[in-house]
Write a structure and sequence with these properties.
- It is a single chain.
- By secondary structure, the protein is mainly β.
- It has four domains: about 5-230, no CATH class; about 250-330, Sandwich (Immunoglobulin-like); about 340-610, Exo-inulinase, domain 1 (Jelly Rolls); about 615-685, Sandwich (Immunoglobulin-like), CATH 2.60.40.
- Strands 25, 27, 30, 32, 37, 38, 39 and 41 form an eight-stranded antiparallel β-sheet that branches.
- Strand 35 and strand 36 form a beta hairpin.
- Helix 1 packs parallel to helix 2 (about 65-75).
- The radius of gyration is 32 Å and the shape is elongated.
- It starts with a helix and ends with a strand.
Length: about 675
């Protein structure tokens, strides 16, 4: 990440409490001194080690710029140490580690080198945990970012007038590697920099005081500071004992995520933002303010279809505001009996069959089962965040199956991979549903990258015995399947294919043959389905979770994305039943760059039975005496809802036609009867 963006994430993690427990119990340091003939004693409190993110068992010592360090100090009631305080801390440390420098290079300011040094320090520290448990005062593992008069004067480099000042990293002999130095910009941080937080509250001669007050007072400053003429001061005084930081407007780091639920479920939308306190939150529903919803979390209890829509949050402080991306809430998309399901929360590779293809005959794919995408960053319109749970997953569930093609080696070649559930055959009317994430390198349309265009593929009525992909040659193909890329990189971003038992599949071109509404992301239809306020590339489904459905009803095959019909056509082929297929293909010989950003995720795969399955899902009698119930149905089918008091005489209560959501019926007169029965009958349109 760019430094400023990375530091927003660090700020949010620390201020939300994601720091090890052992850092929370501060260690007292008591110092004595005679100033102008008067003895003084002071006690201040320091963190036992440098600032880290994580837990006691998994923490990361985090270098950062002095600007972020000062922001954290301001937020937490702390200060950074002076040179003299660094020496005092080293003297009092019970655990004196031996410094482990890494040879200087341009890479020393990068996260991988931060990680390398973190491992080096942690390995050395862990060797002494039995003798010095976590929470013991440690020194020698980093040099310090400090408070000094040289933040503002006596610059080592005349061109750097806003420096970071560093000092320390003592050898066990007590000699520091790093003399006091201010030759780096205030935006600089390398692997060796540590942030030692010191509580600003201090006791001086038994009375409460503040470290920042003491450092500006010539009668007391020498207790905590040894700066003098070479630092353009005297008597240890540091006239401005802090770094000057500009106000920081909010930035939304974790956005609310789209969710699909059943009626009556509770829904939680979360947002995490960084910025100067205080932050205020204002939640929106379909663009209008939700009165009273001013927390970072929005809870909807017992959600119903009226809650179906678009949610977002605006975060504000005194310096500005930031709007989150929008999230959809969909009510009741999974209402039919389940014939097959896999949420990929565990490794289910034994339950699937895999087939691959490539132009050069060399396997060029990966399949990661139960892949935890919750730690995977992606860049969206220049900002980095983490892949959220899929819409049909509960909060915190971030496992899916991950596929890649044509990026395992430097040989650019067309390639594909297919997955079929083992021993499965589906007949009649059914729907394949799943959550889909297509990741691609670069920005809008794959800009600033190469090889970004790859297609997620999915189909029904397959034999499940061979690979199916667009550039297949010399082999049989089968089934009915569709394809979409993530960033709108071709003239045919949306594609339809029909298997051929005698050879390669036929790509169906034209609306009559393919049933596609359109084939290019720039068309008005796809611009409305995947709008720019939600998707990085308007008209393309990449870098967002979308819900996909392939529905077979009688002899009609429909492809839906986020509830919108993308393709619909009559199935006149021989492929009317069979297995389902998930896959990924690259029809171009160029390797994606960066390769790690090109992949597809499938989650919450299920096959639902649509064969005249009608069942009540829920019912209750409200305080007004109205009976309210929902039933599952086949979308597009007409039904009569009938009532009776004796199971003999039936009257029509309501005539309805099912949509994608469960059907909801209200009987306003239910309380007029001691008992009341209901049934549902299909009806011809």
């Amino acid at each position: 990440m760019p430094v400023a963006e990375r530091e927003n994430w660090i700020f949010a993690q620390v201020t939300s409490g994601n720091v090890p427990i052992f850092l929370r119990l501060l260690v007292p340091i008591t110092v004595n001194g005679n100033i102008n003939g008067t003895n003084h004693t002071a006690t201040y409190y320091v963190t036992p080690d440098y600032l880290a993110i994580g837990s006691d068992t998994d923490y990361f010592l985090e270098p950062m710029t002095p600007l972020l360090a000062q922001r954290l100090c301001d937020a937490l009631g702390c200060t950074l140490p002076t040179r003299k305080m660094v020496n005092q801390i080293w003297t009092n440390a019970s655990m004196k580690l031996n410094p482990q420098p890494i040879p200087p290079s341009a890479e020393m300011i990068t996260a991988p080198i931060f990680a390398d040094h973190n491992t080096m320090v942690r390995t050395q520290r862990d060797n002494f945990t039995n003798s010095f448990p976590l929470g013991a005062l440690v020194s020698g593992d980093k040099k310090d970012v400090i408070i000094s008069s040289k933040i503002y004067t006596n610059f080592a480099n005349a061109n750097i007038t806003k420096p970071v000042v560093i000092y320390g990293w003592h050898y066990p002999t007590g000699s520091p590697i790093q003399p006091l130095y201010n030759g780096h910009e205030e935006t600089y941080a390398d692997y060796s920099h540590g942030i030692r937080l010191i509580q600003n509250a201090i006791t001086l001669d038994g009375k409460p005081n503040m470290i920042t007050n003491i450092l500006t007072d010539p009668n007391f400053a020498a207790l905590l500071s040894d700066e003098g003429a070479s630092e353009a001061t005297s008597a240890g005084v540091i006239r401005l004992p802090r770094y000057t930081v500009a106000a920081v407007a909010p930035a939304v780091l974790i956005h609310p995520r789209s969710q699909s639920i059943s009626p009556g479920a509770n829904v939680v939308f979360n947002a995490i933002a960084a910025g100067d306190s205080p932050l205020s939150y204002r939640w929106l529903f379909n663009g209008s303010t939700l009165v009273g919803q001013t927390n970072s979390t929005l809870l909807l209890s017992n959600a119903e279809p009226a809650n179906d829509g678009i949610y977002s949050v605006i975060v504000t402080n005194n310096s500005g505001s930031a709007a989150s991306r929008t999230a959809w809430l969909r009510i009741g998309t999974n209402t039919h009996p389940i014939l097959f399901a896999d949420a990929f929360d565990i490794d289910t590779s034994a339950d699937w069959k895999l087939f691959w293809g490539s132009a050069n005959g060399i396997p060029d794919y990966t399949v990661n089962w139960a892949f935890n995408h919750g730690y995977v960053p992606y860049t969206f319109n220049g900002a980095t965040t983490l892949i959220p749970p899929a819409p049909n997953s509960p909060d915190g569930s971030t496992r899916a199956v991950r596929l890649t093609v044509n990026n395992n080696d430097a040989n650019g070649t067309t390639a594909a991979v297919n997955l079929y559930p083992a021993t499965q055959t589906f007949t009649g009317n059914f729907a394949l549903k799943f959550d889909l994430w297509i990741n691609y390198p670069g920005g809008v349309g794959g800009i600033n990258s190469t090889g970004s265009t790859e297609h997620a593929i999915f189909g029904i009525n397959h034999l499940g015995t061979e690979v199916n992909w667009a550039t297949l040659s010399g082999l049989a193909s089968d089934g009915i399947w569709f394809a979409t890329d993530g960033e709108g990189g071709t003239s045919r971003d949306y594609r339809a294919y029909l298997g051929n038992p005698a050879g390669p599949p036929a790509e169906l071109i034209g609306q009559d043959a393919s049933g596609l509404s359109e084939s290019n992301n720039s068309t008005p239809f796809f611009q409305s389905v995947f709008p720019s306020f939600r998707f990085e590339t308007a008209g393309a489904p990449g870098k967002q979770w979308v819900e996909v459905e392939l529905r077979q009803t009688n002899n009609t095959v429909s492809w839906l994305m986020d509830g919108n019909v993308v393709a619909q056509r009559i199935n006149s082929s021989t492929f009317t039943s069979g297995n389902i297929m998930l896959g990924f293909m690259d029809t171009f010989a160029s390797v994606a760059n960066p390769a790690e950003d090109a992949f597809v995720l499938f989650d919450n795969v299920r096959v639902e039975d649509l064969d005249n399955k009608v069942q009540f899902l829920s019912s209750f009698l409200d305080v007004n005496g109205e009976a309210k119930f929902t039933f599952s149905a086949i979308p597009g089918q007409a039904y009569d809802v009938e009532t009776s008091t004796n199971l003999i005489d039936w009257q029509t209560l309501s005539a309805v036609t099912a949509s994608n959501a469960p059907v909801i019926v209200i009987d306003q007169s239910a309380s007029n009867y001691s008992r009341r029965f209901y049934r549902i009958k299909t009806r011809s349109l």
